[in-house]
Amino acid sequence: MNSRISHTIIYLSIILTFTGNLNHKKYSMLANQSDDTVNKKVDSLMALMTLEEKVGQMNLYNGFWDVTGPVPKEGSAKTKYDHLRKGWVGGMLNVKGVKNVRKVQKIAVEETRLDIPLIIGFDVIHGYKTLSPIPLAEAASWDLVAIEKSARNAATEAAAAGINWTFAPMVDISRDPRWGRVMEGAGEDPYLGSKIAKARVHGFQGDDLKKDNTIAACAKHFAAYGFAEAGKEYNTVDIGTSTLFNTVLPPFKAASESGVKTFMNSFNDLNGIPVSASKYLQRDLLKTKWGFEGFVVSDWASINEIISWGHAKDKKEAAKIASLAGSDMDMEGYVYIQELVNLVKEGIVEEVIINDAVKRVLKVKYQLGLFEDPYKYCNTKNETERIGRKAHLYDALDMAKKSIVLLKNTTKLLPLKKEGQKIALIGPLAADKNSPLGSWRTASDDHTAISVLEGMKTYKGNSVKYAKGIDLIIGETSFIKEVNINTTSRDGIKEAIEVAKHVDVVVMVLGEHGFQSGEARSRTQLDLPGLQQELLEAVYKVNKDIVLVLNNGRPLAIEWASENIPSIVVGWQLGSQTGNAIAQVLYGDYNPSGKLPMTFPRSIGQIPIYYNHKNTGRAKNVENNVFWSHYIDQENTPLYPFGFGLSYTQFAYKNIIIKGSDFSINDAVNISVEISNIGDYDGKDVAQLYIRDLVGSVTRPVRELKGFELVLLKKGDTKTVEFVLTKKEFGFYNNNGDFIIEPGDFEIYIGGSSNANLKSEFTLR
Ligand code: NOJ
């Protein structure tokens, strides 16, 4: 009998009690599932599975073409096909396009004994073919609706290409811009990070995973990867409970509460335990305490790397530790598939552990509707119609404009006049069509971004002269290739100077190439790479009216520019529509409203530098001697703080009103503030509310973001904005990882950045 029919009959006719011990004493298992029908289906299917087939569901193979990690020694295409046919593969990653996905799915559902469909994963990080700004840039918009829409469009395109699972959102908080992967997250703040995590999860997954344009999301990298020591990729992490619970975990918890279907663990160790081996994080905290019902996938061969970390002596031990710890699926590590069956047979790993993992994986496949139609995502009509849609490009442009941050505009060079001006456009990134697409894109076409030059040329009223000046990188680079920035030729600088001499405004597009940030792109310098600083200063000597447009995947330490250049715009890597977005902002057709999601340091020596730091015991220089918390060679303040960003107009905040006065820790505190647009343009500000808990049983940060709202104001208008603070905002995690609320005095600050100085206070009894 056809195996699909056979297991259908079984789950229709028999109410099979799953025999695994769900309340196993040592290892808390998936229990009390909300979705009973799915559970029954999963249980009945599992009753038919051999141990080998179960372990197969815990095995995730990379496709046969692209790699997004080191190429493993094992795993020829032949082995993979062979395993696929045996039903020993639960999912594949980096297989894309309806034709290719259909090919592997067909093997899974037509050639294996039980016909269990594959889950197909892909790094859909900031778009599939149509690229939105890099995630850090999107975070600068603080616009949760737009961010959700961006994820939704990404899901629509990916789903049309056969993909049903994205390895996103990355919700790692990081305070270290040396770490290249900050481009992939939402910055330094757990509150903003949690809101964005929720928006992205909902964007990818929508309200109904059964639809053919929604895909399962994956909160990664669980946990603390963003705290890699010295910002060095794949490095050790040693942080305390307070930072773990108050800073690192909140966005993961938010993702879990938003119903994210999967988590990915991380490459780092955490306080001595490689994360894939951490039972505490995966099984005890995530699955038991938080009640997460989905599955945890390892990062690329991270189970294997438990051996390199020196925490397991061989693959057998790594497989044992990781499975017991709650890593449910092994990504391209060949550890589970080679070791788990024997480990169970030898009685070293109990089968309930395997059952729990498999149940989680199968459940997500059911929720995706793959058992009803394994080819649900393999529709060529959708592939043609939905990928690269005009509407997606329109949304990408909207998102890109919202992501731009204006750092400086002292002489009001911006917005540019639309007519009669001579403009020089200078810099190695000004005409680049590849770099602005950013890192972490493996499905889009190279060299397809609208360059800044192209964007500027759509405005016909001015003359634009372009000079590259210098090269930024040598040769072509890609997601998997080291970037060679060792350029030495100064030949073009002369021409750039000549062009700059005779114009009204110079727009310089400088910064990092898109592939200088992302995975494995840690930097020890945060300046303008290569000869760009030299070019900037050479041009400045002949024309000081410079608008510096930064391209960057992380905060940069640009102290000289910040002191000397009158206008600075953070242009990140804004994706497919980069040039149009930049031009529309420079010309004032969009009034910039972005706010930094990460502090810009003055120098590398200040790192880690973040707004929600502790006060220390010696915060101020009160006696005019040296004995206070500072550097002798640099001030404590950052170059630009978290939450900072200007507009072409100005906003004034006044009149904080706290309704009521006698609050207990159970009360809600309602706060309002007035915001006025006192400048010359209509505009939007992000009103931000910070609290300071003055005395805590665990020391509290000097400020913590606890509310924000985007406020659109016509010039001359005033609006009242309301915030509500409750336990969730007053409380914090103590050093046992318990959430507590303590009575006491609180200060609040409201304004347009983390430096806001409009202040009020209240007391909680
Ligand atoms: C390694 C990265 O750390 C992870 O984020 C990504 O999803 C996988 N490779 C798969 O490409």
From TrEMBL:
GO terms for molecular function: beta-glucosidase activity. PROSITE patterns: GLYCOSYL_HYDROL_F3 (PS00775). It comes from the Bacteria. Its EC number is 3.2.1.21. One of its GO terms (biological process) is glucan catabolic process. Keywords: Glycosidase, Hydrolase, Signal. It catalyses: Hydrolysis of terminal, non-reducing beta-D-glucosyl residues with release of beta-D-glucose. Residues 685-754 form the Fibronectin type III-like domain. Transmembrane segments: none annotated. SUPFAM superfamilies: (Trans)glycosidases (SSF51445), Beta-D-glucan exohydrolase, C-terminal domain (SSF52279). Pfam families: Fn3-like, Glyco_hydro_3, Glyco_hydro_3_C. Belongs to the glycosyl hydrolase 3 family. PANTHER family: LYSOSOMAL BETA GLUCOSIDASE (PTHR30620:SF16), PERIPLASMIC BETA-GLUCOSIDASE-RELATED (PTHR30620). This is beta-glucosidase. It comes from Psychroserpens burtonensis. The gene is bglX.
